[in-house]
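Ligand: FE2/S2 (inorganic) cluster. Inputs:
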Amino acid sequence: MSPFVWFSQCMHLPETARTEERIIMEETLEQILRNYTQTDLNIITILQDIENIFGYIPEEAVYWFSRKLDIPASRFFGTATFYSQFHLKPRGKNIITVCRGTACHVKGSERLINRLRLELDIPNDDDTSSDSRFTLEKVNCIGACGIAPVTIVNRQVHGNITLGKLMKQIKKIKSSE
Ligand code: FES
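Predicted complex:
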């Protein structure tokens, strides 16, 4: 089981099982830490390792490194929130990204977002569906304005996307799981 899955599940486990999961998490974090020396510390690289392994940056991991390295947790959180590559909350299995930069906005990206929320059952104040199958992300211009509106479905870029084409892709994902 991937560390991401067990860490997510560990939040719902009874106390004894949670202790075991915590030990596994500590071992994973120790492994990341072994890649660095005190003189070679790079918060971004550590965060990238955490994100790669867990799929996001668990708060607990940040406080662990903060204690171990005697670096304020705020520096980790500050860096993690500055770069869009980092995520502070668990993400769904499928990531749907919609560009809402000016060109895409003019070509109807807001309509795509609203329809996706309904289709994927994602509330307005959240990004991920309650079953963790889908995360809807919004970005500000991915530099492909010539083919606006643009979406990225599980890392595949789709330009000149229409509501119909997008819903077809979502249905395909849903039926393949
Ligand atoms: S505004 Fe969407 S790609 Fe530039």
